[in-house]
Design goal:
The chain has ten helices and seven strands. By secondary structure, it is α/β, with parallel strands linked by helices. Helix 1 crosses helix 9 and helix 8 runs antiparallel to helix 9. It is globular.
């Protein structure tokens, strides 16, 4: 971990960055996440969808504006789907898209403090792992998971290949410059790369899943710039 990253994370935990990143970005999130990932977010979401089994209920953690949630609903139109997010402004955007999808409910809750009176066959989340405590989040998931259920987590990772790292760093330099022109995204494009470089979420969550007896698989995506971690509960 570099000195700059150490100072950033010492001053504030990853969870503390959430309001900085998301309180003022809800209205532009859908367009920006597509542009900032050079369209790869759509591909990553498709790969997540491939891992969701035919089941009756799905919980989408940190659902944001509902990008993944609505794709799940289209794939499983007869299933119960609940999306939760800690940022109300993002949920308000998601709710404006809700009319054609009667099988979705959106709730304003913190994923690490989640307390729903129901369990689910599958729990998904895109971009949450780096912000949360792995032990806390996996315990919450297990408390809301039906026997034999599946947990699917996706997030950015810092690529290991040096050439890809160079391109990755260049992309964030460009995004940081763009952030100067779009003030609501300035903090995101400044601090997000530091967080991604410093996090070891993939190994941490895999270890916790295995500790709880889950069978794990990992899929690296787009030259090692993001990954999907799946944990399946053994019956």
């Amino acid at each position: 971990m570099g000195f700059e990253n150490h100072i950033m994370l010492k001053a504030e935990s990853p969870k503390d960055l959430v309001p900085q990143f998301f309180d003022k970005t809800a209205q532009t999130y859908d367009k920006v996440v597509n542009l900032a990932t050079f369209g790869k977010d759509k591909y990553w979401k498709k790969e997540i969808l491939k891992k969701i089994p035919r089941c009756n209920s799905i919980l989408d953690l940190a659902c944001g504006t509902g990008i993944l949630t609505f794709q799940i609903a289209s794939q499983l139109p007869d299933s119960k789907i609940v999306g939760i997010d800690v940022t109300e402004s993002y949920l308000n955007v998601a709710r404006t898209k809700l009319k054609p999808h009667g099988n979705i409910s959106f709730l304003n809750q913190d994923a690490e403090k989640l307390n729903l009176d129901s369990k689910f066959d599958c729990i998904t989340s895109s971009y949450i792992p780096k912000y949360c405590n792995p032990d806390t989040l996996i315990n919450v998931c297990l408390n809301h998971l039906n026997t034999g259920g599946k947990i699917i987590l996706h997030d950015f990772i810092y690529p290991k290949n040096q050439t890809v790292r160079g391109l990755w760093n260049l992309c964030f330099i460009v995004l940081k410059l763009i952030g100067c022109l779009v003030p609501s995204w300035k903090d995101v494009f400044t601090n997000l790369p530091k967080l991604i470089r410093s996090t070891s979420w993939l190994a941490d969550y895999e270890n916790i899943m295995k500790k709880h007896g889950l069978q794990t698989t990992m899929q690296s995506l787009t030259w090692g710039t993001s990954a999907i971690l799946t944990g399946t509960q053994q019956v």
